[in-house]
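User: I'm new to structure prediction. If I give you an amino acid sequence, what do you actually give back? Let's try with this one:
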Amino acid sequence: MRAIGVLAALALATPANANDFSALGPAERAAFDAELRAAILASGDVIADALAGPQPAQSEMQQYIQDDLSLLERLAPDLLEGHAVALFTSPDCSTCTTAISELKELSMRYGATFILHDLSAPQAAGWAEALGLSEAPFYVLPDMVLRGHMPAVVLARYLTR
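Assistant: Good question. You get back a string of structure tokens that encode the predicted 3D arrangement of the chain. For your 161 residues, that looks like this:
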């Protein structure tokens, strides 16, 4: 719709008898340049989009993001059970004990509850597989997954947003 406005402004800015822009006098040329500049400034995003052309990689990435968010939306009720975050751990994880300790401290400080899932349990392993994750620890929030041990300062930012 705005592109039509740009075209209309350009058409109105062009003198009716001027098919050759080099034939414009200095005053007409200045008026035309001013109108053209105003039209471009008013609709720069439309022009930029037209020049950029289709961006298949961006739309493909958007589709991946939407697919991940849909998966989280389906899994969250069972996986989170009403908690703010789920932490997935495993017995052979070297940073899981630290992750649990930090999450307990953050939970007490900010009141954000969490649930633990051990990847050795079949249901937790199934969720991890659905999410495409296999190494603990990782955190699941209603709208994102954080892979690997997150420092407390990082987790605090996500839990308090």
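You can read the tokens as a compact description of the fold. Here is one thing that stands out. The helical segments are 2-13, 26-42, 44-52, 56-80, 96-110, 122-131, 152-159.
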